[in-house]
């Protein structure tokens, strides 16, 4: 976990959650295994419940997924905030994963994703993708999430010279799951379920 990513997630917390510290929020961290640091200390607030999620057991992992594209361990619409940093470049079929993000988020829930647009290959166990703002925006649109902000750190920042964070040129997106009427919500669930089934049936 490099410093520029930690700072971006800190910025998300301060901008979107500073006024919600007394709310009983459930926060899910996708790709949470502690590899040289984690986001957990940023969300260590008494009213909040932080759950680390990953594909393998280890430090800072509360929920181990059996299937990266079918999160049966997590109920639909049970998560207030979903965060993920330095994980989506390692997800082979990220367009299926974003459907699961939408499924588990509550209506009105927030999602913050951080992933590199640059940097060297770093398999864990695979390294498949780099993301630009348009790519993240397209992914959110596919998952029926509304983008609140998205940007890439294109220029070097002197604060990150020591750990060479600048090389990753991270892209960060914050989006929300829209609140819909009863019929609209049902139609969204049906659409996403059908999409998920069609795309995952051959995996």
Give me the CATH superfamily.
Vaccinia Virus protein VP39
Q: What would you call the shape?
A: globular
The total domain count is 1
Task: Report the order of strands and helices.
Answer: HEEEEHEHEEH
What's the quaternary structure here?
single chain
| Largest sheet: spatial strand order | 3-2-1-4-5-7-6
Keywords:
7 strands; 203 residues; Rossmann fold; 4 helices
Report on the structure:
This protein is an alpha/beta fold and 203 residues long. The protein has a single domain, classed as 3-Layer(aba) Sandwich (Rossmann fold). 27% of the residues lie in helices and 23% in strands. The protein contains four helices and seven strands. The protein has a seven-stranded mixed sheet with strand order 3-2-1-4-5-7-6, sandwiched between helices. Helix 2 links the parallel strand 4 and strand 5. Helix 2 runs antiparallel to helix 4. The longest helix is centred in the last third of the chain and has 19 residues. It is globular and about 50 Å long. It starts with a helix and ends with a helix. The mean pLDDT is 96. This is Class I SAM-dependent methyltransferase. GO terms for molecular function: S-adenosylmethionine-dependent methyltransferase activity.
């Amino acid at each position: 976990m490099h410093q520029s990513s930690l700072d971006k997630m800190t910025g998300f917390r301060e901008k979107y959650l500073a006024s919600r510290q007394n709310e009983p929020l459930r926060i899910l961290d996708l790709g949470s295994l502690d590899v040289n640091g984690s986001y957990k200390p940023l969300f260590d607030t008494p009213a909040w419940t932080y759950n680390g999620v990953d594909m393998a057991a280890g430090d800072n992992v509360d929920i181990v997924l059996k299937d990266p594209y079918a999160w049966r361990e997590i109920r639909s619409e049970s998560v207030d905030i979903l965060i993920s940093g330095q994980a989506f470049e390692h997800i082979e079929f990220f367009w299926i994963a974003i459907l699961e993000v939408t499924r588990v988020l509550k209506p009105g829930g927030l999602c913050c994703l951080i992933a590199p647009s640059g940097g060297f290959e770093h398999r864990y166990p695979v390294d498949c993708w780099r993301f630009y703002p348009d790519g993240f925006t397209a992914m959110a649109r596919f998952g029926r999430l509304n983008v609140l902000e998205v940007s890439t750190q294109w220029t070097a920042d002197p604060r990150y010279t020591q750990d060479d964070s600048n090389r990753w040129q991270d892209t960060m997106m914050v989006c929300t799951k829209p609140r819909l009427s009863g019929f609209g919500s049902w139609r969204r669930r049906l659409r996403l379920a059908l999409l998920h089934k069609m795309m995952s049936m051959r995996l």
